[in-house]
Recover the amino acids of this structure.
């Protein structure tokens, strides 16, 4: 009987291995491009857990096909190149399409409002970033930090592509094939307290 149990161990191990292979994986990241026509998102995967003082996102960007069934996807994501805004250090971290790298843009934080919730009238119906070319000011909303920030930039920075100053949505997706999301949740636009998808 003992010999039979021992002989069955390799078979049991192979069954467990096959079962494990059938489980998918989950990734989360910041959307830097969304192509609705092609059904793809391009994102920078987020380090989990985020390391203090380290870059939150991994390079290079990855492109993933969105779920085939609309019911398996939350709200369509907004794309943007801003990865982080550091008002204390007067800098914005952005993904640069031309160099395929992350770069720092110097700015001057001229106004900051904290504790601004997504439903607040100051942000609810506003499409960010808000660019005021005459004053060289750009206003952005940091949903994660609940901050509304107005930044002053150099003249040449106003000529950068508009999505340079946009903050892309954070998404979480489940997959088995790394290039095809089976389910996708827009973390930025999902009220987790209500259990929505």
């Amino acid at each position: 009987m003992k010999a039979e149990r021992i002989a069955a161990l390799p078979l049991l191990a192979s069954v467990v291995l096959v079962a494990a292979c059938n489980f998918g994986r989950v990734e989360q990241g910041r959307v830097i491009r969304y192509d609705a026509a092609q059904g793809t998102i391009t994102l920078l995967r987020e380090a989990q857990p985020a390391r203090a003082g380290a870059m939150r996102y991994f390079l290079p960007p990855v492109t993933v096909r969105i779920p085939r069934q609309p019911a398996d996807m939350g709200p369509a994501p907004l794309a943007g190149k801003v990865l982080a805004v550091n008002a204390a250090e007067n800098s914005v971290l952005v993904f640069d399409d031309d160099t395929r790298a992350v770069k720092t843009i110097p700015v001057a934080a001229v106004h900051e409002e904290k504790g601004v919730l997504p439903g607040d009238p100051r942000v609810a119906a506003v499409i960010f970033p808000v660019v005021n070319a005459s004053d060289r000011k750009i206003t952005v909303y940091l949903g994660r930090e609940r901050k509304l920030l107005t930044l002053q930039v150099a003249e040449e920075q106003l000529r950068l592509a508009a999505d340079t100053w946009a903050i892309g949505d954070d998404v979480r997706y489940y997959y088995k094939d790394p290039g095809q999301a089976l389910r996708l949740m827009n973390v930025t636009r999902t009220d987790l307290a209500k259990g929505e998808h």
